[in-house]
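Contributing: when you submit paired examples, paste them exactly as shown. First protein:
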Amino acid sequence: MTEQIEISNAEWEIMRVIWTLGHATSRQVIEVMKKKKAWKEATTKTLLRRLVAKKALVAKKEKRAFLYEPLIAEQATINAQLAQNFANICQMHQGKTLAYLVDNLTLTKADIELLQQKLTAKQLNAPLTLACDCIPSEVTSVSEHDCCTLENDV
């Protein structure tokens, strides 16, 4: 499925369990969420129903239980969510935001090597500066310097 699905933070928790297991019964998900978040059974069942309604999961009846399987791919869903989040940030702040993430995430040596390769390739065609894209210039008389300033607040 390639369309973007809006998933709440609580629904992300459910999806993470099912992506990790590949498929899971409602009982398995309920037990994990009880231990992980101290959620009540009804909360987990409600979230599972919502994810089925959103077509993020499929529920298959197996004997007396439902087996849930993802209909959306984990990495593609993560990528779409991050692209949406970064689309909401002024392009002048995206690089500093990415640097903040690099500083605050635990990365493997392989992750760091991949990032270095991507940044080296990206640097070949990177512009020297980026303009603020918050407000189109034809809409306002605010100068570029008054719109978004890059402060050392990271």
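Second protein:
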Amino acid sequence: MMAWKVGGALASLLVLIWVSNSAAVAPASETAPARSAAAKRETWRRDYRAPTAIPFPDANPYSEAKAELGRRLFFDPILSGDRNRSCASCHVPALGWGDGRGRALDLSGGDMELRTPSILNLAWQERLGWDGKFRTLESVSFFPITGAGNMNLPVAEALRRLSEDADYARAFAEAFETSSEGLPQAQTRIPSRATPVVTQERVEAALATFERLIVSRPAPFDRWIGGDEGAITEAAKRGFDLFNGKANCAACHSGWSFTDGSYHDIGTATGSDIGRGRYFPNAPALRYAFKTPGLREVSRRAPYMHNGSVPTLAAVIDLYDRGGIDRPSRSADIRPLGLSLSEKADLAAFLETLSSEPGRVPALADLTADTPRP
């Protein structure tokens, strides 16, 4: 078991990630096929061991003051035009850091084009957004803040509000004035008195620092990976075998956060809803391709898909079992599966193990960047 540590204001927000080097040993009485199946399962289990530290980019290294500033900004409606909406209005901790809606709610009470994505485990993602429009976590911040249907606050007004708030001005000075953290390369010098304390780059850096701390809590699956055979049911174990074998879910939902971070057409989107193909019109494989979402806390994150079109996990399994629309852009890993009712039930049982214990909502990591506590 490993813990990440940060002192001060975040010290009460502890997340443990379970890591084990244990290996199952097949009893001598097992048949050769059973031993082979057990060995295969153990190999798969090793692929889901969690990292022991959260990565932060060199251009925006971790600091406690910056993370605490980002936390305040994330939960404060000061960054919305009418002061009634914050980042946390759509990224709700108890809902897997999503909003539980099929599509994000706009200011007029209608639906936006896409579903609010979960922001769990974004520290390990290189490109963000359902269609990959954002190159970094820093570049995401002002998209919802300035969006007319979202928080509807111009950049200049956001910076004015924060600058005129004495507590925020002091917090920005503490987080940035004595170092170059979070500034573009062209500004990597200790700021002079003429340099504004609150800048767009600093708001982006603080929010991104906080958001990299949003890491999923350990779930029953993690205890099983760590060697506790009783942590999940036999049905869930069979579902894990299906996930990595016959159902081929792991082709895209790979690694400890259950995403390859890439974009695929799974054969569901239609019409003008072409995803990443919008940016690469001459790349047929990217037409209708959307981001592979991670599966941590997945049972808390209904409805599903980029547009919230699938209401339940059972319906998601049925969709993949059918194989989606057969077309040139459809991923080679998507095909009819021929799952039985019992196999579907086992797969659902496995997916349920990826959510933390009831009453334990996803929280923030308590860490020093890239420095795990032994």
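If you have annotations for the second protein, write them as plain sentences, like these:
The longest strand covers residues 2-3.
Residues 1-28, 179-192, 360-374 have pLDDT under 50 and may be disordered.
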